[in-house]
Amino acid sequence: MRSNMEEAVSGSAKKKKKKKKKKKKNNSTENGLQMGSHTDAVMGLSWNKIHRQVLASASADCTVKLWDITRASSPGITSSSAQSPLAATYQHHTNKVNCVAWHPSEGTILASGSYDQSVCLIDARTAGGASTSSSSSSGDVRRVKIPADCEAIAWDLHKMQYLTCACEDGTVMSWDVRKFDGGPVWSFVAHEFGGVSDLSYNA
After folding, report:
1. What is the pTM of this model?
2. What does the buried/exposed string (b/e) look like for 4-28 if buried means 16 or more CB atoms within 10 Å of the residue's CB?
3. How many whole angstroms separate alpha carbon 203 and alpha carbon 171?
4. CA distance 191 to 199
5. Kindly report the CA angle at 128 between 101 and 44, in degrees rounded to 5?
6. Closest among 203, 158, 165 to 184, alpha carbons compared
7. Could you say which residues of the chain have pLDDT below 70?
8. CB 130 within 8 A of CB 181
9. Which of 27, 114, 115, 148 is deepest in the core (most CB within 10 A)?
10. Is 120 helix (H, G, I), strand (E, B) or coil?
11. How do residues 69-109 score in pLDDT, each as one tens digit?
12. What are residue 197's DSSP bridge partners?
């Protein structure tokens, strides 16, 4: 009787062990997000007009990410052989990144604006920036300080060397990116009572 009981117990233990299966690795996490996704709210998006499969995203997690949508899987479909659509992650800001904007004709130049009161230019040909330096230029990231949190940025469609920023304190300012560290080309207070939440050039 005892031997039969021991066999039954050992047999059930073996069955339990067989039921345990290793989970297949794929490019989706348990909550359905792609691997490498932002860990906080996405606050801004920009399509690259030259490389049309590339999308830039700005997030409250203080990062900028580049995505190649041709590598994205269809909703609800996961595959262990699928590539992640994440192309690069930039960590050059120290606070929420509110906006991103690709240059209209130079497909490797990306501008970003943040609540750390700075506007940056990124050379997207680099693998991914990790610099958080407050200096005007650091590695492949060029930086200028602004008087308040950045609310919006836009490229001048008529003079494409100009990048314009709208600030929380109502200031609108523009730089010639060829001389980005030399101070703004022009600046004025657009809204004295309250910030500027957005801006757009007439195409």
Report:
1. 0.76
2. eeeeeeeeeeeeeeeeeeeeeebbb
3. 22
4. 12
5. 30
6. 165
7. 1-32, 73-82, 127-139
8. no
9. 114
10. strand
11. 998 766 555 555 457 899 999 999 999 999 999 999 999 99
12. none
| Token pair belonging to 157 | 């469609």
Report the amino acid identity of residue 192: E
Helix (H, G, I), strand (E, B) or coil at 167: strand
Give the containing element (helix H, strand E) for 145.
strand 141-145
Whose CA is closest to 162, among 97, 117, 109? Answer: 109
Q: Measured between alpha carbons, how far is 131 from 7 in angstroms, rounded to an integer?
A: 62
Residue 97: partners with Cβ closer than 8 Å, 6 or more residues away: 43, 44, 58, 59, 60, 62, 63, 64, 112, 113, 114, 115
Distance CA(93)–CA(62), nearest Å, equals 6
Gap between the Cα atoms of 40 and 90, Å rounded: 15
CB-based contacts of 36, cutoff 8 Å, min separation 6 = 65, 84, 86, 89
Question: How many other β-carbons are positioned within 10 Å of the β-carbon of residue 154?
Answer: 19
- What length does the chain have? 203
Q: Which two tokens stand for residue 43?
A: 């606050």
Is 55 in contact with 38 (CB distance < 8 Å)?
Answer: no
**What sign results for the dihedral spanned by CA atoms 87, 93, 95, 100?**
negative
- At residue 35, the pLDDT reads 75
Chain-centre distance for alpha carbon 124: 12
Other CB atoms within 10 Å distance of the CB of residue 141 = 24
Please give the Cα distance from 142 to 121 (Å, whole number): 5
